[in-house]
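Q: Hand in one record:
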Amino acid sequence: MTEYLRRALVASPTAPAQAARAALSDAWDWCSVDDADVVIALGGDGFMLQTLHTLLDARRSAVPVFGMNLGTVGFLMNEWRQHDLDERLSKARAFKVTPLLMTATGIDGRVHTIPAINEVSLLRETRQTAKLEVSVNDRVVLEELACDGILAATPAGSTAYNLSAHGPILPLGSAMIALTPISAFRPRRWRGAILPDKARVKLRVLDPDKRPVSAVADQREIREVAEVTIAIDRARELTLLFDPEHALDDRITMEQFVS
């Protein structure tokens, strides 16, 4: 069991999350995120991603996060309960999540480096089909992919946008990346690939002026990119805490049996 003495409380701006924050504010002593050894996040999956990115930006990725769902889906969250937080934190199971690192070069030559916990996606910006060259470890594997887009997902993110695009569910700890096309037109039969997480993916936009493409790392978008590289960022590992009966690895596994 782990005892967390310095706790920070953060909440999404929605009414349910703010009400829950008010309910917890007087029950425990709270500190700032900068001083915390654990963060309690109230909201949905989008707010959890925002909280994790805040820790990455502050170089505090080692601080674990215990989320409670006051949003819609809450796949990355635990159940909201007000009264037994001490016991839940002491019994929580820790899961390590390694983010992707997206390096996007715009057609203007500017380079943007952004982490992604769930996925990096490339999306067409206009009615014109995107045309992409796909390389893995500096080897061209698809000379031209005509599609609405493509995404690379981590195991933690494989049940999100990746699953909606008919990509595979990756077990937590599988050391894999899902590379999934979005509405592929040519080659028509290509359904994506499962790559070892040591792989480095490069996506080059063909004819970016006529067929502009944006790159999105979780919630952060870069417009009109010319080239994007994606690789696991092993220097910044994140930790999520879950109730034993609500563990992330089991939830990901059971998603394969949801009809």
About this structure: The chain has a mean pLDDT of 93. The chain is about 15% helix and 40% strand. Helices lie at 15-25, 45-57, 85-91, 161-164, 248-254. Residues 1 and 90 are 5 Å apart (CA to CA).
